[in-house]
Design brief:
Order of helices and strands: EEHHEEEHHEHEEEHHEEEEEEHEEEH
Shape: globular
Number of strands: 18
Distance between the termini: 13 Å
Largest sheet: 8 strands, mixed
Strand content: 25-35%
Number of helices: 9
Radius of gyration: 18 Å
Length: 294
């Protein structure tokens, strides 16, 4: 097995929205804002090569939306999903599986593209199975008013219409890990999945066992290292009071077992470990991917 970080493009989001009710005087210590109160955000995906299977976790925003749409997100840097795949010797047609932690546009937008004549949409990975879970899919395709702007039908429905969509098993049938949390083992992908509510319904946090380490892809359960304190919850979360205990549950396991937390949205920290302190679970060490695995 080999792992590759896939940088799908950087952008910016409002720092206040990213930290909810937390004062700027606190969150700006770890996530400094520009003059427009915008902070740096990454779309860092993860590619897993396991024999002939190539699994990509999340796909970033993609590039099919309008200039007006992208104008809200101040994209910066030179990273693209295709250039990042090419850097590691791959093409999107090589991908066998696309695992989507959830279906917000900045996590799955790259899964669908315009067709050749720009008359409609098609899967951007023509040889891949797209993985979601049934409860989240139902939530995303019948969105509440709060999340409607994040669940874009052109990002979602073409995966099902193509016949390439599959669901992982029932979240309610997940297995207990040390009596502290429930994980679902997805044998087809070699992943253990933690289902997290709060940000959205049944967001999936996958773990990979690699070279004696457990790598957890944190998606929006922990967007950046600056979100480690439990009250540091995004304003985007639909149920923040549920996010906090789920984040506490997962971070406790991560600290107890020395998990390596792969940060999708932290533009400046790729992987971190955490530790128990008097103030709760806090940052232990920061690593680049190359420092750990090359």
């Amino acid at each position: 097995m080999k792992l590759y970080p896939i940088e799908a493009g950087n952008f910016k989001l409002d720092g206040g929205a990213m930290f909810g009710v937390v004062p700027k005087s606190l969150w700006s210590r770890t996530n400094p804002a520009d003059n427009n109160n915008m902070i740096d955000i990454a779309a860092r995906c993860l590619l897993i090569e396991n024999g002939k299977q190539l699994t990509l976790i999340d796909t970033g925003m993609g590039d099919k939306q309008s200039d007006k749409f992208f104008g809200h997100y101040d994209r910066w840097g030179s990273f693209t999903l295709d250039s990042s795949l090419k850097k590691h010797g791959f093409h999107r047609d090589d991908i066998t599986d696309v695992f989507m932690t959830h279906l917000h546009f900045d996590h799955c937008g790259g899964s669908v593209q315009w067709n050749k004549n720009k008359t409609g949409y098609e899967p951007a990975f023509k040889n891949a199975i797209f993985w979601s879970n049934e409860r989240h899919w139902d939530w995303a395709t019948n969105p509440n008013r709060r999340e409607r702007a994040s669940f874009l039908k052109e990002n979602i429905l073409p995966m099902q219409e193509s016949g390439q969509l599959k669901f992982v098993g029932d979240a309610e049938q997940s297995i207990s890990l040390e009596g502290k949390a429930d994980f679902l083992k997805v044998k087809e992908l070699g992943l253990n999945i933690f289902f997290a509510d709060g940000h959205t319904e049944k967001q999936m946090i996958p773990q990979i066992n690699f070279k004696g380490k457990t790598i957890a892809f944190m998606a929006d359960l922990l967007p950046t290292a600056g979100h480690l304190p439990l009250p540091f919850v995004m304003g985007y979360d639909t149920r923040p009071l549920l996010t906090m205990p789920e984040k506490e549950k997962f971070l406790t396991i991560a600290a107890d077992n020395n998990y390596y937390l792969f940060l999708e949205h932290d533009a400046h920290n790729q992987i971190i470990t955490v530790k128990h302190t008097e103030k709760g679970v806090r940052l232990n060490e920061c690593f680049t991917f190359n420092e750990l695995f090359n």
